[in-house]
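Quiz preparation item.
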């Protein structure tokens, strides 16, 4: 992963062989607490969704996130935030292996980070693209038939935007500014039609 300050990214990963990565409610909460502790220093989180076998985040890294790590007198190619993401998931994997008495990799591959704002400065398309990704992330539980109503899925930021919960993991004000969203957009999100051509570029 390579990040550029103040760009918007879709960060995602899934379980090895599409296996579960969350096995009970405490697992979801445990990872979210780790992300709050470790990631918030390096980024503003705009939205997220944790699913039984994968996760999605839309976020904006800051300057410190993008500094390359120094080892001794050598400057490496790895950035601060990339290392923190890797260490967070490694720590989570260790905890799950202890819980389940298993070994090996929990996640399928290295976490992916897709830049959503590198679109040749086509502002109009960028806004549509960003909004599609935002809605796509929130709509995962509905698409997977885990709930009949998005506000019933606890492990995404939809409840915060909808007003059912006063969570502070996401910077909602920044998200509304960057994505040109309004409160009505959140209320109507379950019936938003997503452009398939745009969705293919989110990953």
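Solution:
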């Amino acid at each position: 992963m390579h990040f550029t300050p103040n760009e918007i990214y879709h960060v995602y990963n899934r379980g090895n062989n599409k296996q579960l990565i969350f096995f009970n409610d405490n697992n979801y909460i445990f990872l979210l607490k780790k992300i709050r502790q470790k990631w918030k220093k390096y980024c503003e989180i705009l939205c997220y969704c944790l699913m039984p076998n994968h996760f999605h985040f839309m976020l904006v890294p800051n300057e410190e996130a993008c500094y390359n790590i120094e080892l001794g007198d050598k400057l490496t190619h790895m950035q601060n935030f990339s290392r923190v993401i890797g260490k967070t998931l490694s720590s989570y994997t260790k905890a799950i292996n202890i819980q389940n008495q298993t070994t090996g990799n929990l996640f399928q591959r290295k976490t992916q980070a897709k830049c959503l704002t590198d679109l040749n400065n086509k502002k109009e398309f960028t806004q549509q693209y960003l909004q599609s990704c935002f809605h796509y992330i929130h709509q995962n539980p509905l698409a997977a038939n885990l709930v009949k109503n998005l506000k019933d899925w606890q492990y995404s930021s939809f409840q915060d935007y909808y007003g059912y919960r006063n969570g502070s993991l996401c910077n909602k004000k920044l998200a509304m500014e960057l994505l040109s969203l309004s409160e009505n957009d959140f209320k109507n999100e379950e019936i938003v039609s997503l452009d398939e051509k745009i969705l293919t570029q989110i990953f």
